[in-house]
Automatic annotation (TrEMBL):
<feature type="region of interest" description="Disordered">
    <location>
        <begin position="375"/>
        <end position="409"/>
    </location>
</feature>
<dbReference type="InterPro" id="IPR006944">
    <property type="entry name" value="Phage/GTA_portal"/>
</dbReference>
<dbReference type="Pfam" id="PF04860">
    <property type="entry name" value="Phage_portal"/>
</dbReference>
<dbReference type="InterPro" id="IPR006427">
    <property type="entry name" value="Portal_HK97"/>
</dbReference>
<protein>
    <submittedName>
        <fullName>Phage portal protein</fullName>
    </submittedName>
</protein>
<feature type="compositionally biased region" description="Basic and acidic residues">
    <location>
        <begin position="376"/>
        <end position="389"/>
    </location>
</feature>
Length: 409
């Protein structure tokens, strides 16, 4: 049968993406670590510590609102205005695309960046020169290419339809983790794959022990050989002491039998210690305190409070700065008027939120010193403003002067 479509010269472009070495090794089942495990961004989260670390960082970023400001400088003094109606601010806080919330979009990008080192989102531009939507794509569907010294292109394969399209760098939001050439980033999973492979091997070893190993709590010794009748009688006698409801009963052993309890071997103890050390190693990889990976063996109330502050300063601040600057570079191609600039900033107030007693003490100090007005403190607590609450305290201007008087004063 004649098929006219076969003679049509214009056909839809199909996927011709080459396979990476990691994808080939994973498909062939070939290990890429010395421990015999294959480690990739696709299976790294089978380690609970990696899953928790990625979740803690990505969810912390996703839960923060990200605002766009215009910063103006007049007579050496900077002032900023929140641009709530700007298309970029609407994308970041209201609707990044037609199928994701802002939380889901930011969490997706951070998760891709933490596991793969690179995160990509296609920018759809409107006729007015402003971004209309941001659509993330999995890193495995993106093939970056260097066109010139400072020009790049991205070939993206649609996961559902298989259609292939090439985008210029102005059409892509590219979030990077850590890069050597300024273009493509290396994944923390690939950099530390030996460490993660060791943890996965320990996990597999524990599973095989549970399945095939001998896990008896104790053994019974006897000086004589038990035939089937004596053996059945001995087992029947021991049935009376099995189970939680019989715990604490003193067994009576007959026929010269002797019970010997089995404790944990040194090998088992070292295996448990190595599992804990894996958690600490994963914490080092993602620059996060083990406390946030549910490892509380060395935690106290005081160091937990310090770890929470360190989480913001050492873990989240670099990620937030990276995200803010990349958003500004990709979405704000047109500069504002002379004498002003744009600023993209995550609101970390909730991350640093103290307990109610400490918060109200800080509000009291800020209001008395004239830094805040009462309504600003009420707004931070989610309360409506009250009449007269916009006035600032003048107590900081007051001075107390003590004059020395004479005997008649």
């Amino acid at each position: 049968m004649w098929r006219g479509c076969d003679m049509w010269p214009w056909k839809r472009k199909t996927e011709n993406r080459s396979m990476t070495i990691d994808e080939f090794l994973a498909m062939a089942g070939i290990p890429n670590t010395g421990s015999g495990e294959h480690v990739s961004s696709g299976n790294a989260e089978t380690l609970p510590a990696v899953l928790n670390a990625v979740a803690v960082i990505s969810e912390a970023v996703a839960s923060m609102p990200c605002y766009l400001y215009r910063v103006t400088r007049t007579n050496g003094v900077e002032a900023r205005t929140w641009l709530a109606d700007h298309p970029v601010d609407v994308l970041l806080n209201e609707r990044p695309n037609d199928c994701q919330t802002p939380y889901q979009f930011k969490r997706t990008l951070m998760r891709h960046c933490l596991l793969n080192g690179n995160a990509y989102a296609v920018i759809k531009w409107g006729k007015d020169g402003q971004p209309q939507s941001l659509h993330p794509y999995p890193p495995r569907a993106v093939v970056p290419k260097r066109l010139d010294e400072h020009r790049y292109a991205y070939t993206i394969t649609e996961p559902f339809s298989g259609r292939v399209r090439t985008y210029l760098q102005e059409e892509i939001l590219h979030l990077r983790y850590s890069t050597d050439d300024g273009f493509l980033s290396r994944s923390p999973v690939s950099i530390c794959r030996e460490t993660l492979g060791l943890g996965m091997a320990q996990q597999r070893h524990g599973a095989s022990i549970m399945r095939d190993g001998l896990m008896a709590a104790g053994i019974i010794k006897s000086g004589e050989w038990f035939d089937s009748i004596k053996g059945a009688k001995a087992m029947e006698a021991l049935e009376r002491y099995k189970g939680a409801k019989n715990a604490g009963k003193t067994p009576i052993l007959e026929g010269g039998m002797d019970y010997q309890q089995l404790g944990m071997s040194n090998q088992d103890a070292e295996w448990l210690a190595s599992r804990r050390f894996t958690i600490e190693d994963v914490a080092r990889i993602f620059n996060i305190s083990p406390i946030f990976l549910q490892e509380y063996s060395n935690s106290t109330y005081s160091n937990f409070s310090e770890a929470s502050r360190a989480f913001h300063a050492m873990t989240m601040r670099p990620w937030l700065t990276n995200f803010e600057q990349q958003l500004k570079a990709a979405l704000l191609l047109v500069s504002p008027s002379s004498g002003s600039r744009y600023l993209v900033e995550f609101d970390t107030t909730d991350l640093l939120r103290a307990n109610p007693q400490d918060r109200f003490k800080s509000y009291e100090t800020a209001i008395k010193s004239g830094v805040m007005c009462p309504n600003e403190a009420r707004e931070r607590e989610g309360m409506s403003p009250r009449e007269g609450g916009e006035e600032f305290s003048q107590a900081w201007k007051q001075t107390v002067e003590v004059k020395g008087g004479g005997a008649n004063d």
